[in-house]
Structures are given as structure tokens and as C-alpha cells.
Amino acid sequence: MPYASFRCNQVIQLTGNQLTLEYVGQATYFKLMQLWDKYSGNLTDFTTHFSFAIDSQNRSVYGDGLAFFLAPVSSKIPKTKGGSTIGLTHDDQALDSKDNPFVAVEFDIYRNVYLDPPGEHVGIDLNSLKSVANISWYIYIAIKEGKRNEAWISYNSCSHNLSVFFTGFRYNVPIRQFLSTNVDLSHFLPELVTFGLSASTGNSSAIHTIYSWDFSSSLEIDDNITITKDPVSSPNIPAPNQRKNNALGLAVGLGSGGFVLVGGLALVLFALWKRSRRNEEEDYVLDDCIDEEFKRGRRPRKFSYNELVHATNDFDEKEKLGQGGFGAVYRGLLRDSNTL
């Protein structure tokens, strides 16, 4: 039985459509991503957005979660019996993934004491399921009721900032949450990578459903790069017919470690840009980033007061980042442009 199913209603259920224990499933983009270029030293900017639900069918005990991941082309779905690694690596390499290097953003709903903080959380992982950065995720009600959530992940190659903006539910009211860290991805992954979504269940279960997934990046693949290993161990399968730029082909992982290419799942690509300012010591980095933004043709624009009220949830104190000489600084989402 496949560890991931592609439903006729255009959703992907990474761990099947039932509360099955000890399942692993992945959905990957059928093309590779040029993460960085060794000749120029350039890193890519990328952004991804996905709409998803984790549904425990009203059960109070559930597991294990899902993750957006980047991995070397040679990576395969690890053979694992538990859900603690979310399908990213072998059980015995949860703290140091030597065989399957990866960078991931995890949406973890089951606590493994030696890996995780208490409760449901979102974390950024670098070759380890012990996150380098994490934050509590207010998601309990949404999991019991199978409510849909959104996640936006972006990487700024100039500041090396990997940021995650995601939704949750607090007292059954939708909220927005945020997490970020600085990391040079070229120190962890090769030039070409595969990327996608992974989910797992262990001794507890939930249904992990992807409703939509969008992705875009700035670097074109260098045709001179030689791939020394096949990305998967499956026989050659012809690529699906590609629609124009709004078609996103997926590979759905099977229990054998092979992949089946799925065509015809039209997902709209979009551009989401996130710039992070953490402290005054990073000013010189941000100046370079801003200069680069202008070179790329981006310009500042004016926003009405009503737009800012809506973006910051009426200047909610929870969204306040700090106080400066010109007043308070808030984090907000400009919905029309998908900009944070």
C-alpha cells in the first residue's frame, strides 16, 4: 500500500486517508532546485506556500507531523518504523543525519522527549530533528477538528534568513505566528537539491492532507552540473506533460522508496519576499540586501492606514517587534501581495 495517496479531488494525503500507524509519505517537486552556484557563490532566493490540515478525527492523542524539506538529489525515503523523524532520516540518526542530510521546517505535533520542546511546535532543522529554532504552535483545536492551516516559508540569500510564517488557532480563534533563523544553506546542502513535503505517523496517528502547494526560486539550474547518483531507486518513469509556468509537477513517495510522477496538479506559483531585521549589528547586511532589491526592479510603495490596520491585526501588541526613534514597529501580512 502506498505511503502517500493522490486523491481525485486534487489533494495529497501524505500518510493515507485513514488513521494508520507507522506510516511515512513524501511529495516532491519533479524537478530539482539550484540552491547555490559554486562558480559565482550565489545562493538562490526561494519562497513556498502550502495549505494543509492535520486531522486526528477528534482524538486527543495524535502524531506525528509534517515538514517542508530540502535534501540532496541522492536522498531516499528512509526505512523507519516510528514517526519521530517525520520521514526525513533514519531513527538512529535523528540527532545527526549523516546518510540523509536535510534542511527542514517541521510542524511537529508529537513530543519525543529527547528531541522536542513540550507540546506542538514549529521548528527549523539542520541535519537533526533537534531544532536550531522553535516556537510553540497553537494548533490543538485545529488538529482535533481537522481545520485548514497555511504556511509561508522564504529564504533570503543576501541575509541568509530562513523565515516561517504560519497560522494556528488560539481559543478557537485563527492567529498568525512567526519563526526565523539565519543559516547559510550552502554549508549544509549541495548545489542541486530535491525538495518537498514529508509526513509520518508513529504509535499515534493523524491524517496529513495538502490542499495546495506553491513554490518559486530565483536561480536557474546550471546544465553543466553532473549528477552522480539517481535521485531514487525506481525505474525510469516519463515526466508528466507540463502545463505552462503555473503547473507544479509532484512525485509522491511509495513505501518501497520509489516515486510515481503525478501530472496535472495545477498550483499557482507566486513570489513572496521576506526581509528580516534582527538587530543593529546586521545593518550593513541589510543595506546590501536593499540595494540588491532595487537592482531587481523592486520599489517601495505607499500603504493606506486601513491596509496597515488590517495587516497588523489592528496593531496587535502580540505583533509588535520593537520601539524605535520613529515609533513602534509591527509585523504584519499584506494579503494582496502575500508580503510579510
From TrEMBL:
Keywords: Lectin, Membrane, Transmembrane, Transmembrane helix. Residues 4-230 form the Legume lectin domain. Coiled coil: none annotated. The keyword Flavoprotein does not apply. It comes from the Eukaryota. The chain crosses the membrane at residues 247-273. One of its GO terms (molecular function) is carbohydrate binding. The keyword Metal-binding does not apply. SUPFAM superfamilies: Concanavalin A-like lectins/glucanases (SSF49899), Protein kinase-like (PK-like) (SSF56112). PANTHER family: CONCANAVALIN A-LIKE LECTIN FAMILY PROTEIN (PTHR32401), OS10G0129200 PROTEIN (PTHR32401:SF49). Belongs to the leguminous lectin family. This is Legume lectin domain-containing protein. It comes from Quercus lobata (Valley oak).
